[in-house]
């Protein structure tokens, strides 16, 4: 099948379809970060507190984690094209409803709907692309899909800040409408029809357990980071989430029609690929959290200006993922990933040396190195993991990798934030400071970036044991 696909392969033939999928994924991924800058404006517009306004982000994240496990079954049962198009339509409609919200409660409800639609797009988009692109061209062609993942977190806050400055918070959602309409038209025109599997059975026990697994774990982790790990509410959500997760794993392993192909972890290269993806994600996600915080809290930049400072990372990521895709196709995974971890490691170590007067050129160089590392590693280890598994399982493996990343992201933010806070507190006690001082805050950034550097070194060592290529 792969050989026939390669024989009939034409970039011009499938490029419109891959670009269409990328546009749909960009639309959804921008909304994971675009709200960060808007929170103070929502707080003012709806006369509410910041914790309530924060739910406009939390609700979206929880809805994503709830629906992602079901995306594989939806694609199989109703066809990937119909599920993808339906998700974009619902996402666009919910964006309109978000913009028309008259209260924070309405906005939160509509953000849940938006998240339920958005959670379907990524896994199905990647699965469709794997079916479209022959094996020996996946590295370079999947680069197109990697761009939304790399660019969206950077440009989301910048676009949001710009729209709010020239108009209002409503336009953070209204901008989705033209993009959504264009995306729907392109889907209908360029995405091939996939025959639905009417016999695809729904894993009912898995569906019943899903709401108690990933949403509870993610919410519990967020609560622990914000309010303390020993609080009753935090412990309740985490215990329910862990118990449900254990039951969910048992159901998925024993079931004949699982929502998530957990048994794929028996495939060595699949597990290695996911492990490296998680390591890379934690390090990059941590850097993208703490670098803007350093720029704002230590250097006095606005949120918008700190966002602009991160733009070179997106540019470097584009270069890195383009080079990485070609290297992946021609030489194999490890020849892209090993240099990527080296770039990221150097960048994070450089960030561990910054102070209140570090030259902006030094910061820009560090940001560029981080982007290069991110581009070389991210999509390549994802491709490596998915390509190591049977093609027939792709629709159930992409949701698995996506939902695990949601959990990893939440856990990394909570853990790294707690680590930095503790580091600052210990430094204050050591120096007999009564309140956070600049040296203690800088110490917190330094040790946190050193921790991320150590994590990247672990990833580098693991990458040495990757197979050069997977069949």
Automatic annotation (TrEMBL):
What InterPro entries does the entry give?
Answer: EmrB-like, MFS, MFS_dom, MFS_trans_sf
GO molecular function annotations of the record? transmembrane transporter activity
Upper lineage: Bacteria, Bacillati, Bacillota, Bacilli, Bacillales
Question: What are the UniProt keywords, alphabetically?
Answer: Cell membrane, Membrane, Transmembrane, Transmembrane helix, Transport
The superkingdom of the source organism is Bacteria
Query: What protein does this entry describe?
Result: MFS transporter
Where, by residue number, does the polypeptide cross the bilayer? 12-35, 55-76, 83-102, 108-130, 142-164, 170-190, 202-222, 234-253, 274-295, 307-328, 335-354, 360-382, 403-424, 444-466
Per the record, its GO cellular-component terms are:
plasma membrane
* Family listed: Belongs to the major facilitator superfamily. EmrB family.
Q: Which Pfam families match?
A: MFS_1
- Asked if the keyword NADP belongs to this entry, the reply reads no
The segment(s) forming the Major facilitator superfamily (MFS) profile domain are 17-471
User: Source species, please?
Assistant: Pullulanibacillus camelliae
Bilayer topology annotation: Multi-pass membrane protein
Q: Where in the cell is it found?
A: Cell membrane
């Amino acid at each position: 099948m792969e050989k026939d696909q390669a024989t009939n392969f034409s970039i011009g033939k499938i490029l419109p379809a891959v670009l269409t999928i990328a546009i749909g994924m960009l639309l959804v991924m921008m909304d994971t970060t675009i709200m960060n800058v808007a929170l103070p404006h929502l707080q003012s517009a709806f006369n509410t507190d910041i914790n309530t306004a924060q739910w406009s982000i939390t609700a979206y994240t929880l809805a994503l984690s709830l629906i992602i496990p079901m995306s594989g079954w939806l694609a199989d049962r109703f066809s990937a094209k119909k599920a993808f198009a339906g998700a974009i339509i619902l996402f666009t409609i919910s964006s309109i409803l978000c913009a028309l919200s008259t209260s924070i409660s309405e906005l939160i409800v509509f953000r849940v709907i938006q998240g339920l639609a958005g959670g379907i797009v990524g896994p199905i988009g990647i699965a469709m692309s794997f079916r479209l692109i022959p094996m020996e061209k996946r590295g370079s062609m999947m680069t197109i899909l990697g761009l939304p993942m790399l660019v969206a977190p950077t440009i989301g806050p910048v676009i949001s800040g710009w729209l709010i400055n020239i108009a209002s918070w409503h336009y953070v959602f209204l901008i989705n409408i033209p993009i959504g309409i264009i995306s729907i038209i392109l889907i209908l025109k360029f995405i091939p029809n996939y025959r639905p599997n009417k016999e695809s059975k729904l894993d009912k026990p898995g569906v019943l357990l899903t709401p108690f697994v990933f949403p509870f774990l993610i919410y519990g982790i967020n609560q622990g980071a914000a309010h303390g790990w020993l609080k009753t509410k935090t412990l309740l959500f985490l215990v329910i989430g862990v118990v449900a997760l254990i039951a969910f794993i048992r159901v998925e392993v024993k079931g004949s029609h699982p929502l998530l192909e957990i048994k794929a972890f028996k495939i060595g290269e699949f597990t290695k690929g996911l492990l490296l993806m998680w390591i890379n994600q934690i390090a990059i996600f941590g850097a993208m959290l703490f670098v803007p915080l350093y720029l704002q809290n230590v250097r006095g930049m606005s949120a918008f200006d700190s966002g602009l400072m991160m733009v070179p990372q997106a540019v470097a990521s584009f270069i890195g993922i383009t080079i990485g895709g070609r290297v992946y196709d021609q030489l194999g995974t490890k020849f892209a990933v090993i240099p990527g971890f080296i770039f990221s490691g150097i960048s994070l170590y450089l960030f561990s040396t910054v102070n209140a007067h570090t030259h902006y050129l030094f910061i820009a160089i560090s940001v560029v190195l981080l982007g290069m590392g991110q581009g070389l590693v991210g999509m390549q280890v994802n491709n490596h993991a998915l390509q190591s598994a049977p093609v027939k399982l792709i629709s159930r493996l992409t949701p698995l990798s996506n939902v695990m990343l949601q959990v990893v992201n939440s856990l990394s933010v909570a853990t790294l934030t707690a680590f930095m806070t503790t580091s600052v507190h210990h430094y204050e006690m050591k120096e007999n400071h009564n309140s956070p001082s600049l040296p203690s805050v800088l110490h917190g950034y330094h040790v946190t970036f050193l921790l991320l550097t150590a994590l990247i070194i672990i990833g580098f060592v693991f990458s040495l044991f990757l197979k050069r290529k997977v069949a």
